[in-house]
Amino acid sequence: MQDVKGKVAFITGGANGIGFGMAQAFTAAGMKVVIADIRRDHLDRALEQLRKEGRTVHGIQLDVTDRKAMAAAADECERVFGKVHVVCNNAGINWFGPMEEATYEDWDWIMGVNLNGVINGLVTFIPRLKAHGEGGHIVNTASMASFVSGPGAGIYTGAKFAVRGISECLWYHLAPQGIGVSILCPGLVKSYIYQSEQIRPAQFAHTGQAPSEEFTRRLEEVHQVGMEPLEVGEKVLRGIRRADMYILSHPDHKEEVRQVFAEIMTAFPDETPEPRRMAFEDFRRQQKAEARNKGDAALGRA
To answer: Please, which residues bridge with residue 179 across strands?
Structure first.
């Protein structure tokens, strides 16, 4: 999507952090943007700032885990601005604690927002993108946690690994139809994700480990040195225009990712593959290559 001027974008988690940075970058490029966010106060503040800058924006208070509300938000987007061309499934929360102490409620809450929220956005908007036949682009926010893991945020990491896998597969389905898919994998960004506990729903109140006030203060301090959201937003816009599958905004993790893949490669057995299995794998790879070629051509990457 080289020409984005006048196009409509829908961004979840759009009132602050990465979502707000995308809204700033998109509207600066002449796009019309609908920002959706669960917090009304953050939404109002974001809309006020963008409108003062003369940007074309609309706001919707939305819980991305609510499928009916997601469908209603899509209807509202089309009613206010017309056909949607860019969908950014960006809303996310975090929970820090030992995985072995996590409750069902911890799992359901984190997965409900970080994974099911993305799924809800896809199921709601993909038919609409396909129906208008003008192409489009989907950006699913994963994280560098979709490549690297460690102690402390295991449920979050699991959700982000899933978002990455879903998005990679989805590219091969949608790219040949002129709809790009990007996986945004940021590192530390100046945002309010450390306030996630403030919006934990009552039905998920039973937690294995609530963060202490001291830990939350430390998280706030850490996020203050994160990358500016606008910088991330500008990199996302560039990725949309180039039809990139991966948008890696931070150079901070390059060596760590290299080490991850090096360890994976050394784990493969040094054996000759069974020919009958290889016949199937060669067929699968051929199908993938054909889809890749069609996708690259449809997106202007050929």
So the answer is: 136
